């Protein structure tokens, strides 16, 4: 468990309450990682943390504020990289929408290969066949149980994306998945004008980052959205939202993204039944109008949590 900074601890606490109500029995290890730790010790995370984290089955993370030091690399990016969590799975669900963005999580414009100068700076966009293949496989695993795959790219301009597109096509064809491809700018437009047309989307790192915030806006709020960062045997689950220091401590953060992330974690752990019940309870609370201010509601974090746990308990008795 990495509660992190800002609203991180508040939403993680809420997710824990819901996990308990769903009957999860977890052997929790808490890590103090993030801005708070950096202020105290000058380091947000160290190698010992990484080693200890590697010994855990999976990670539930709240949110981390990147320290205000231009030389500091985001802790989240370090974790994704160190644990090789190459597939960022971001489901978007509302009353009439249901699609998943599968974002490559280790390369692209997040390569970290940069030359920084006063007059000119460069970032190297790295696309590899291996990286494209494994993210395409992850997307096809999902699409196989759904309708269709959309490969999103900018290969009319970026030659690096020809490799991405070609590799994704090959994988989809080999797997017998129904697919199409779409330029990223058109995808951004279609996400707003006709989001129903999407099912599973696969794309490179930065495009996935941007499109997933857009998708969150389309379904109503970043506060609703969960994600799984998956590697071969490791996984990190986190709400898509950040640490939102402006509302930290006010008790109004939307815990749904964290609760849904915890449900994704349960599913990954093989606890399908509990995961399904957690997701259902969240849906019930939302349709009953139990909503935090980001959704135009007046409920507090603990009221939303209470409603969700209430539905879970009611079902049990
Ligand atoms: C996300 C975030 C991160 C990213 C930041 C915090 C480094 O925006 O998970 O979408 O860019 O991947
Ligand atoms: Mg983002």
Automatic annotation (TrEMBL):
Q: Which organism is it from?
A: Methanothrix soehngenii (strain ATCC 5969 / DSM 3671 / JCM 10134 / NBRC 103675 / OCM 69 / GP-6)
Q: Its family?
A: Belongs to the isocitrate and isopropylmalate dehydrogenases family.
Q: What is its EC number?
A: 1.1.1.87
Under the heading PANTHER family, the entry gives: DECARBOXYLATING DEHYDROGENASES-ISOCITRATE, ISOPROPYLMALATE, TARTRATE, ISOCITRATE DEHYDROGENASE [NAD] SUBUNIT ALPHA, MITOCHONDRIAL
> What top-level class of enzyme does the UniProt entry assign?
oxidoreductase
Database matches in Pfam families: Iso_dh
Q: Which SUPFAM superfamilies match?
A: Isocitrate/Isopropylmalate dehydrogenase-like
For the keyword ATP-binding, the answer is no
Instruction: Quote one Gene Ontology molecular function term.
Output: isocitrate dehydrogenase (NAD+) activity
Q: Which domain of life is it from?
A: Archaea
For biological process, the GO terms are: isocitrate metabolic process; tricarboxylic acid cycle
* Keywords recorded for this protein, A-Z: Oxidoreductase
> Which Gene3D superfamilies does this UniProt record tie to the protein?
Isopropylmalate Dehydrogenase
Protein name, per record: Homoisocitrate dehydrogenase
Reply yes or no: does the keyword Oxidoreductase apply: yes
Where is the Isopropylmalate dehydrogenase-like domain positioned along the sequence?
A: 1-308
Spell out the InterPro entries in the cross-references.
IsoCit/isopropylmalate_DH_CS, IsoPropMal-DH-like_dom
């Amino acid at each position: 468990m990495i509660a992190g900074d800002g609203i991180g601890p508040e939403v993680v606490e809420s997710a824990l309450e819901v996990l308990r109500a769903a009957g999860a029995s977890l052997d929790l290890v808490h890590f103090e990682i993030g801005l708070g730790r950096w202020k105290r010790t000058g380091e947000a995370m160290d190698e010992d943390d990484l080693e200890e984290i590697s010994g855990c089955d999976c990670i539930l993370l709240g949110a981390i504020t990147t320290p205000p030091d231009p030389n500091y690399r985001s802790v989240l990016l370090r974790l994704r990289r160190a644990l090789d969590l190459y597939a960022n799975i971001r489901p978007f669900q509302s009353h009439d929408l249901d699609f998943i963005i599968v974002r490559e999580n280790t390369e692209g414009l997040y390569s970290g290969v940069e030359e920084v100068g006063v007059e000119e700076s460069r970032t190297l966009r790295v696309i590899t066949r291996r990286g494209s293949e494994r993210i395409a496989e992850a997307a096809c695993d999902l699409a196989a149980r759904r309708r269709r795959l959309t490969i999103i790219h900018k290969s009319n301009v970026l030659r690096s994306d020809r490799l991405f597109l070609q590799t994704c096509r090959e994988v989809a064809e080999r797997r017998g998945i129904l697919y199409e491809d779409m330029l990223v700018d058109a995808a951004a437009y279609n996400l707003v004008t006709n989001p129903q047309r999407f099912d599973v989307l696969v794309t490179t790192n930065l495009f996935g980052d941007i499109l997933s915030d857009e998708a969150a806006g389309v379904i109503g709020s970043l506060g609703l959205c969960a994600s799984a960062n998956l590697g071969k045997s490791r996984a990190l689950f986190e709400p898509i939202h950040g640490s939102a220091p402006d509302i930290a401590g006010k008790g109004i953060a939307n815990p749904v993204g964290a609760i849904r992330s915890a449900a994704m974690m349960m599913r990954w752990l093989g606890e399908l039944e509990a995961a399904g019940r957690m997701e259902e309870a969240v849906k019930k609370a939302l349709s009953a109008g139990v909503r935090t201010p980001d959704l135009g509601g007046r409920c507090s974090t603990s009221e939303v949590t209470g409603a969700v746990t209430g539905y879970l308990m009611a079902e049990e008795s």
